[in-house]
Amino acid sequence: MRHRARTGLALTLVLASAAAAAGCSTTTDRSSDRTAHGAPAARTAVTSCGSPLSFDGPPKRTVALDQASTETLLELGLQDRMAGTANLKTKIPAQYQDAYAKVPVIAPKIATGEQLRAATPDFVVAGSTDLYTKDRAGTREELGALGVPAFVSAVDCPQQNEPGKSPFELLFSDYEALGKVFGAEERAAALAREQRAAVAKAGESAAGTARDGKQPTVVYLYSVFNGMPYVAGRTGLPSEMSRIVGAKNAFDDVEEDWPEVSWEEVAKRNPDFIVIGDLSERGRPGDSAAEKRRAMAEDPVVSKLAAVRDNRIVEVPGIELDPSVRSVHALGLLAAGMKDLGYVR
């Protein structure tokens, strides 16, 4: 506990000198920097989760604190601007593996302040605010005071990023903000455009899903831990996925991303179909799709549900049910699965 209590102070003392060595002080002149397209770098500013961030030029030593942020940066072709990655949950997709191999892994799990400062970052990116705490990477305020901007996905703080925007639109705004920071606006805009088209395609048949004036209901089974199911609540991305494809998340009344519930409660909701998140690569007990199917088949109540009995089940990669550059793929699988199950006319 004593070691953790000193983390914020250690981060302040050591990262300050590291930031200066890496050229990340806000007083450093980077007018000689050039973007990937060869144009002179200009000072840029973006707002992230309510905090203004400014840059004298494209960051050179970015650290991504989670896999979602890492894959977004790799998709934007920014691996040469990365000094570290952390918190890998599953295998990196084949299309990113060569680029990922160039990025140092500063921590296999959640990075600490010590691990972050050792990477001498000039920019830090994360998918959620809970990675920026004193006993983890350090607070955003601590990092900002040292001239190290700390970015958080807009999806994690929707009320501070144009309330009313959909989670997917907030995700696309991340691409555009990061593109601006790194001088990669064209690539970021192309990615956002491509994924907007994928969202629109998934929603094309949504109007035909309702039967007798009722939308089909769905339960998203993310994991099973100690025999208990974890499902998608109202604040998770699956609720927005459901809306897009014309379904209704059966646990939309729970104000959490992935609440723990009971099998009895799943049975009470009696969903028309079930989406299983396959987390086989994570490797924890109850993570694989096969284990989740077995848990439902063995439960005396859930096994009697029509969705289980009639195999009205759609499998998607579990990691894609959380906001990331991969999420539109899961959305497409959901739309295709509903079509296969006969919910799309």
UniProtKB/TrEMBL annotation:
Source species, domain of life: Bacteria
SUPFAM superfamilies tied to this protein: Helical backbone' metal receptor
Region described as Disordered: spans on this chain: 26-58
Residues in Fe/B12 periplasmic-binding domain copies: 61-345
Alphabetical keyword list: Signal
Signal peptide positions on this chain: 1-22
Family: Belongs to the bacterial solute-binding protein 8 family.
Protein name: ABC transporter substrate-binding protein
Organism: Streptomyces erythrochromogenes
